[in-house]
């Protein structure tokens, strides 16, 4: 399974949806709350060029927002 990191904020609906999707498909992930962790926020901006969340890193491939089709392909889910 690819390494997955999701950059989130507590109030983000799409972040919640992405995490639910991961749980439903047994995808292990590391969550980084960019409101509490400024280093994670800088890391996210370096990777994505933006402050919007969620930003999802799948083995170095960046997904902006909750793009189910792209995540399904990157995670090799059916």
From TrEMBL:
<dbReference type="GO" id="GO:0009055">
    <property type="term" value="F:electron transfer activity"/>
</dbReference>
<dbReference type="InterPro" id="IPR002109">
    <property type="entry name" value="Glutaredoxin"/>
</dbReference>
<feature type="domain" description="Glutaredoxin">
    <location>
        <begin position="4"/>
        <end position="63"/>
    </location>
</feature>
<dbReference type="GO" id="GO:0045454">
    <property type="term" value="P:cell redox homeostasis"/>
</dbReference>
<dbReference type="InterPro" id="IPR011911">
    <property type="entry name" value="GlrX_YruB"/>
</dbReference>
<protein>
    <submittedName>
        <fullName>NrdH-redoxin</fullName>
    </submittedName>
</protein>
<dbReference type="InterPro" id="IPR036249">
    <property type="entry name" value="Thioredoxin-like_sf"/>
</dbReference>
<dbReference type="Pfam" id="PF00462">
    <property type="entry name" value="Glutaredoxin"/>
</dbReference>
<dbReference type="InterPro" id="IPR051548">
    <property type="entry name" value="Grx-like_ET"/>
</dbReference>
């Amino acid at each position: 399974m690819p390494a997955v990191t999701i950059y989130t904020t507590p109030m983000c609906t799409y972040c919640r949806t992405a995490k639910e999707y991961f749980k439903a498909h047994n995808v292990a992930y590391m969550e980084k709350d960019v409101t509490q962790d400024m280093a994670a926020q800088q890391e996210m901006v370096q990777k994505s060029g933006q402050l919007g969340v969620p930003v999802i890193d799948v083995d170095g491939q960046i997904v902006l927002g909750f793009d189910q089709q792209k995540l399904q392909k990157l995670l090799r889910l059916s």
